[in-house]
Here is the input.
Amino acid sequence: MSTETSIPTRSATADPAPDRFDRTPRTTASRSRDRMSYDREAAHAVLDEAWHCDLAFVVDGEPRVLPTLHVRVGDTLYVHGSTGGRPLLAARGDGLRVCASVTLLDGIVYGRSQFHHSANYRSVVVHGVATLVTDDEEKLSVLRALVERTGRGRADDSRPPSRRELAETALLALPLVEVSVRARSGGVRDEPEDLALPHWAGVVPLRTVAGEPETDPDVTAPVPAYLG
Here is the structure.
């Protein structure tokens, strides 16, 4: 979920059509174009549901990918890291050109033919320049929003960062301007001549389900209602 906070609004785009992102050469599909979308609400929904994203960038001529936590606030995607991490160090100054990717895997599709095995999914790819968040007030608000994603009310039910912890934590802000959504849903799409083959075909749905909370030793507080 995106958390409403007092985070200062960042200027992300002058898109005259607020319900859609502008298509660019980097976000234009070269195949299966029917799976591509530029719908802003659909992109927000995927970013809000997913628990992590992969941030790709180049440092010293070498490609890197950083799996990281994220939170969307308005039309800005914030990613979490350490002040000593490579992307955070590289983003100082003018920022770091990145590509962020988020995917939700909804099911495995079993075709009668091996060629038509597939997956149902929803994914978002964001291109742009990520900048380091330097304002402490903004950092505190984003970190609160990140914690609040784990359970509504958790931010008030935990200690906020100390000055040292805040200094050791880094955040990158990536405006949601160059964004694409790609998705597949539905069933098997076998060839007509394969429909009579004696092989099972169908979809096995996948979903992330929270397990029972495991209380840490020495905790005296009851399990919070937002984890129930």
The two ends are 17 Å apart (CA to CA).
